[in-house]
Amino acid sequence: MTIAVLSGKGGTGKTLVSVNLASAAGKSIYIDCDVEEPNGHLFFKPQNVREKLVSVKIPVINESKCIGCRKCVNFCKFNALAFIKNKPFIFEEVCHSCGGCMLVCPENAIDEKEKPIGKIQKGVSSDVIVNTGILNTGEASGIPIIKKLLCESVSSEKNPVFIDCPPGSACIVMESIKNADYCILVAEPTVFGVHNLNMVYDLVKLFKKPYGAVLNKCFNEENPSKNFCVEKGIHVLGHIPFDSELGKLNSNAEIAERQNEKYKTLFSSLLENVMKEARHETAADSQR
Predict the structure, then answer these.
(1) Can you tell me the distance from the alpha carbon of 2 to that of 152, in angstroms, rounded to the nearest whole number?
(2) Could you give the angle at which helices 261-287 and 14-25 cross, rounded to 10 degrees?
(3) Taking the mean position of all CA atoms in its chain, how far away is CA 93?
(4) How far apart are CA 217 and CA 244, in angstroms?
(5) b/e for 195-213, b at 16 or more Cβ within 10 A?
(6) DSSP string of 164-194?
(7) Collapsing DSSP states into helix, strand and coil, what is residue 149?
(8) CA-to-CA distance for 177 and 163, rounded, in angstroms?
(9) Residue 166 contacts residue 15 (beta carbons within 8 Å)
């Protein structure tokens, strides 16, 4: 079972939820797809960490073959190619490695080279396998890292998998949830929280994924996000209270579920609800 945890913005609590659910599950896999700012490893402090570089292909132009037709420049919608002083020039930072320039070149003047854009780290924390994607600063897209991370971590895996998605609803989030069996939407109890919840709600509907919500930082007061869930018929999987002790553990990069029996009970109960709902939705989806 692959569970993706997402939210409309950073700081909402998706890493808190995904880290503690993976820990509560025991034998499981935690995958940090927030490749621009991965921080799940700070909580798990994994041991026996192994690293693997991730590269993409970047065009290389043989100037002796280039006739200056500019077909490659006109083809590139990312403006990664230009003709400057009658010479082709490549802006590697904005190249999306589609390979189209190589295909349209009539003189076969374009080849490709490997360019590292980041890395994947794999380690272990107690019974949890911790996989982290890290994008180098300044690179255009983390999608190649997320693809490799998920491909190597999820295939034929029997233990539960928890994907800590990037914030928002951009293409890197789409890539992260594409093959998930179930999605958890994490939201704060504010008007802004509703706006951000609506973004990821629209996204999981677009992808036709089964989903439920976890409401974080809850007070005993009016909760606009809860009202939104009632209005849209979103199943609320659990509430996490606004709790200074929990906030302190989290800000100190401690896994609350491992530090305090109260939070162990909280996240074990949440895990039970998530898995029950995910199995139900997955079974129902297979019969549709």
Answers:
(1) 14
(2) 90
(3) 22
(4) 10
(5) ebbbbbbebbeeeebbbbb
(6) EPPSSSSHHHHHHHTT-SEEEEEE-SSHHHH
(7) helix
(8) 8
(9) no
| Amino acid identity for residue 12 in this structure | T
Q: Which two tokens stand for residue 127?
A: 């019974």
CB-CB neighbours of 114 under 10 Å? 10
* Burial category of 151 from C-beta neighbours within 10 Å (exposed 0-12, middle 13-18, buried 19 and up): exposed
Residues 6+ apart with CB under 8 A from 217: 13, 188, 189, 240, 241, 242
As a whole number of angstroms, the distance between CA 6 and CA 32 comes to: 11
DSSP 80: -
Pairing, β 81-84 against β 87-90: antiparallel
* Contact yes or no for 4/136 (Cβ under 8 A): no
Token look-up 């998998």 returns: 161
Q: What is the pLDDT of residues 95-133, one digit of tens each?
A: 888 999 999 999 999 999 999 999 999 999 999 999 999
Tokens coding 243? 């709790």
Query: Rounded to whole angstroms, how far apart are CA atoms 197 and 228?
Result: 9
The residue to which tokens 């993706």 are assigned: 4
DSSP H or E stretch at residue 130: strand 128-135
First-to-last alpha carbon distance for the chain, in angstroms, is: 19
Q: What are phi and psi of 172, to 5 degrees?
A: -70, -30
3-state DSSP assignment of residue 157:
coil
Comparing C-alpha atoms, which of 266, 260, 220 is closest to residue 240? 266
**What pLDDT, in 10s, does the model give residues 246-277?**
999 999 999 999 999 999 999 999 999 999 99
Q: Rounded distance, CA 183 to CA 15, Å?
A: 14
| DSSP β-bridge partners for residue 120 | 52, 133
